[in-house]
Design brief:
By secondary structure, this protein is of the alpha+beta class. The protein contains three helices and eight strands; from the N terminus they run αββαβαβββββ.
């Protein structure tokens, strides 16, 4: 073999090694993702549009609900599409979502710090009716626009969201 053939052979072996390592890494990642997904399904999570959702069976305050979501590796649900809003209709109960104006009255922010852009408030909401309605809930009174502001210390169900990497 001449030098060029040796170099070509080494390059070919090197590329094969890279491909094999890449495929092994993909297999490990795939197994991990499947394992995580499987665990979430077993623990009562529902999958929808690249996220898992946990709907509580008990009632807590907004902060207790958020703490529960965080303990599960998630956060209160952030509704950023019509599809997600429609998804909430499956659960005919009042539920906390990850929206609050506690930091500044009238400035609604999601739990990730982003400002509210698109909203689905029930007619006349938010109204801060009791003077301290700083947290948002899904209230199934209206099929399309179901959000309501209410005092954060009320105890209702909640919905957590765990976004999965694409």
């Amino acid at each position: 073999m001449d030098t060029q053939q040796v170099h070509s052979k080494r390059s070919s072996l090197f590329l094969q090694s890279i491909k094999q390592n890449h495929n092994e890494a993909l297999n490990v990642t795939s197994c991990f993702s499947f394992s995580l997904s499987d665990q979430l399904f077993q623990k009562g999570w529902e999958y929808f549009h690249s996220s898992f959702y946990y709907i509580s069976s008990t009632e807590k305050t907004w902060q207790e609900s958020r703490d529960d979501c965080v303990s599960r590796g998630a956060n209160l649900m952030i509704i950023d599409s019509q599809e997600e809003q429609d998804f909430t209709r499956r659960f005919p109960k009042r539920m906390w979502i990850g929206l609050t104006d506690r930091a500044q009255e009238g400035t609604w922010r999601w739990v990730d710090g982003t400002l509210l852009q698109r909203s689905y408030w029930y007619s006349g909401e938010p109204n801060d009716e009791w003077g301290e309605e700083d947290c948002a809930e899904i209230n199934y009174k209206d099929v399309e626009n179901s959000w309501n502001d209410m005092p954060c210390d009320r105890q209702i169900h909640w919905i957590c969201e765990k976004k999965m990497a694409p």
